[in-house]
């Protein structure tokens, strides 16, 4: 290989490493700044010269959110709502995607387009009708109304991702299972589902994160700490004349860290689940 080619290859590789490092810094820097802020004293946060290193450090903000503001109640509410939403999204969305991808369903792409169109409505446009319906049914300030709304928001994504994943599984597997006497339900539960775990992990995490972070519907349909979720709880920290930046940063760290750990733990399945459906075998 000529020396000019080697130099060009070296420069390209260095440029890629530098670009990757810049992207990582750009993505991680806000979280690191929040982490640093959560351990700094209030007098340092109001200082004209900001400091990245939390010295001297303090745990006062974490004590405030859990002892004074009862932040653990918001975490429990979010865990219940996001967990139920994920469970129902995977159950209903998995069955729908299996039927559209593996069974003989006419106009299945039209059905998929109709499902996708549901998610295209601006959320602010449907708050008022949903509010009136929830009030009439007595569902205000309940987990039920949040789970139902989040289910309608998450199902289109779950169905589309799982549909693409199911399409990559060879049809010969279905034929062999049918010859052995397996019906559609047994085919889905015993054969297709175990082969599609990366797709289910990916869509489950996406649905969980969506429900975990949603703010507008949670603010509109809940009115007390007994049902309010984390984003609403963080918004309640502020008042008219004071913004507790340290408490907000501590709450943001507590909320974000579990999601980061989940994504890191399942990153191999996430990448496989997102890319597998891009190529049809």
Q: Can you walk through the features of this model?
A:
The protein has 281 residues and is mostly helical. It has 14 helices and no strands. Helix 4 packs across helix 10 and helix 7 packs antiparallel against helix 10.
The third-level CATH topology of the largest domain is MetI-like fold
What top-tier CATH class of the largest domain fits best?
A: Mainly Alpha
Q: Report the average pLDDT across residues.
A: 86
- How many strand segments? 0
Spans of at least 5 consecutive residues whose pLDDT stays below 50 are none
What's the CATH architecture name of the largest domain?
Answer: Orthogonal Bundle
Total helical elements: 14
Name given to the CATH homologous superfamily of the largest domain: MetI-like
Number of domains: 2
Largest beta-sheet characterization: none
Order of helices and strands: HHHHHHHHHHHHHH
Radius of gyration: 24 Å
| Overall outline | flat
Counting helices, strands and paired strands, the structural category is mainly alpha
End-to-end separation: 37 Å
Instruction: Bin the helical content.
Output: over 70%
β-strand amount: under 5%
Subcellular location: Cell membrane
Protein name: Trehalose/maltose transport system permease protein MalG
Main location: membrane
Pfam family, one: BPD_transp_1
